[in-house]
Design goal:
Alpha-Beta Plaits; two-stranded antiparallel ribbon; alpha+beta; two-stranded antiparallel sheet; binds iron/sulfur cluster; 71 residues; globular
């Protein structure tokens, strides 16, 4: 299984949850312990080891918050 790593421009996230719903590996969720400059709980990787690097999350995000790297 391919491995990937996701990182975020968390301050830009509007918590729309599109990326969360489209990730086939349930990697993503909202970070309920932090609030960004826009006033939202930003997206984070809750299960980073599950990421395959497919890139779907980055394609779905309307604000280009997510960067995907493939290992
Ligand atoms: S790259 Fe694919 S597997 Fe990894 S977080 Fe994004 S949608 Fe999920
Ligand atoms: S799609 Fe983009 S703006 Fe929406 S929750 Fe995901 S990272 Fe945040």
């Amino acid at each position: 299984m391919a491995k990937g790593r996701v990182s975020f421009f968390a301050e830009e996230c509007k918590a729309c949850e599109l990326c969360i719903h489209f990730c086939p590996k349930d990697v993503l969720g909202l970070d309920m312990e932090n609030i960004n400059a826009l006033g939202y709980h930003p997206v984070t990787a809750l299960l980073p080891d599950n990421c395959t690097g497919c890139g779907i999350c980055a394609m779905m995000c309307p604000d280009m918050v997510i960067v995907v790297e493939r290992a």
